[in-house]
Amino acid sequence: MFADFALHERLLKAVAELRFDTPTPVQAAAIPPALEGRDLRVTAQTGSGKTAAFLLPVLHRLLDQEHKGDVRALILLPTRELAQQTLKELERFARFTFLKGGLITGGEDFKVQAAMLRKIPDVLIGTPGRLLEHLNAGNLILRDVQVLVLDEADRMLDMGFADDVLRLANECSQRQQTLLFSATTGGTALREMTGRLLREPQHLMLNAVSELNEKVRQQIITADDPAHKEKLVQWLLANETYDKAIIFTNTRTQADRLYGRLVAAGVKAFVLHGDKDQKDRKLAIDRLKQGGARVLVATDVAARGLDVDGLDLVINFDMPRSGDEYVHRIGRTGRAGGEGQAISLICHNDWNLMSSVERYLKQRFERRTISELKGSYAGPKNLKASGKAAGTKKKKVEKKAGEKKTGDRKSGEKRSRPKNGPKPSLVSQDGLAPLKRRKTEE
C-alpha cells in the first residue's frame, strides 16, 4: 500500500484521490531507497509505473527542504511528448502542495520559456537539446539542483544526447541524488554514464530483457515485398480486434507512404515523424487519445514516450534495427499490466534482424500465416544454428589437368594491341552500343 511508504501526507492525500492503492513492482522497489537518498539505477519495462517511482520521492524531498530560490530538481527525458506527460503526472501528485513544475522542450517559443524560467519552478522537466540552449543563453541556473533524474536514459543515448546529458549533469554540481531509469540495460554506453554520474548506486533490475512485455503476444508474418506488407497491414486493421493501433516504420518516407495508403482505403489514421511540427504532433496524439483516430503510423523517434490508454496493437512494418528498439516499440502496448499484441512483417531482408531480436530476448516469436494474403516468401530455406539465413556458397570448379583458364597466357606473353592505339571498349551483346562500367555497390 502507498500508505506504507514514508511519504509526505500531502502526497499521500493526492495518491489516495487518484486511487493509487497498490504500488507496482518498480514503485515498491524504488520508492523506499529513493526516499533514503540513495542513487538508483533502475531497469523496468515501459508502462510499469516508473514515473511515479521517481516523482513521489523527488516531491517528498522538496517538501521537506527549504526553497533556496533556484531550480531544485531536474528531470531529463528524450522527447517532448514524454516530457509533457511527466509534467502532467507531476501536477497530479503535487496538487495539494505549493510545488510547481516547468517544461522546456523544442518546438515551443524560446522567449516564453525564458519568461517561465524567471519564475523559477521547483522541478524543471525537459529535453537536453533545448535545455542546453537556455543554459548557453544564460536563462538557466542549475547550481541549486538537489536531485537529477534521467528517464529513458538508454533512449537518450540512442538519440545522441550523451554529451548534452553530461554537460547538464555537470552543471548540477551540488546535487545530492541521481536517479537513472531505463527500459533496457543499454549496453556499454549506459554503464559508462552510470559510472560517471551515480555514486555507489543501488541497481534494481525489475525485469530481465527476456521478461519484458511478457503479456504481449508476439507474432511474425512473412511478406514478399513492401507492397505485400501494405496489403497485410490493411487486412490486420480490418480483421484484428483492437481499440487503438500503432504501426512503426524505419523511415519518414515509408511512414508517409503507408499513411497515404491507409487514408485512401478509408482508415482513420494519423502520421507522426520528425518532419512534423509540434502542432501536428500534438494533434495526432490528442486525436488518438480521444478516439478521433484509431491508427497511428510513426517512426521510432516520434513515438518515443507515447502513452495512450487502449493502445493494444503494435505492427512493425519495418523490423527495428536492435533488440532494445524492439522492446521500446512493443512497450507501447500491454502497458500497466494489460495485454497486447505485436505483429512484425518480415521480408527476406528483415529475417536476420528478426532472428537477432529473438536471440536477444531469448524468445521465439509465433509464426503466423494469413491464408488470403499468403505470399511466396516463407523464410530462408536454410538456417544457421543462430536462426539467421544461411548463405549459399559458390561451388569451386576444379580445372582438369592441363586445362587453361580462358584468357590464360604464357609467362611473358603480352596482349596484342597496336602501339598508341585505342583501348579496347566493352561492347553490348548486340554490338550496337558500348556498356558503361558500373561501380560495385556496397
TrEMBL record:
This protein's UniProt keywords: ATP-binding, Helicase, Hydrolase, Nucleotide-binding
Residues of the Helicase C-terminal domain: 231-376
Entry annotated with the keyword ATP-binding: yes
GTP-binding among keywords: no
Documented EC number(s): 3.6.4.-
PROSITE patterns: DEAD_ATP_HELICASE, HELICASE_ATP_BIND_1, HELICASE_CTER, Q_MOTIF
Compositional bias of kind Basic and acidic residues: 399-415
Domain DEAD-box RNA helicase Q: 1-28
SUPFAM superfamilies linked: P-loop containing nucleoside triphosphate hydrolases
Motif mapping: Q motif: 1-28
Molecular functions per Gene Ontology: helicase activity; hydrolase activity
Signal peptide: none
Domain of life: Bacteria
Occurrences of domain Helicase ATP-binding (ranges): 31-203
Residue ranges, annotated region (Disordered): 377-442
Family affiliation: Belongs to the DEAD box helicase family.
Descriptive protein name: DEAD/DEAH box helicase
Organism: Stutzerimonas tarimensis
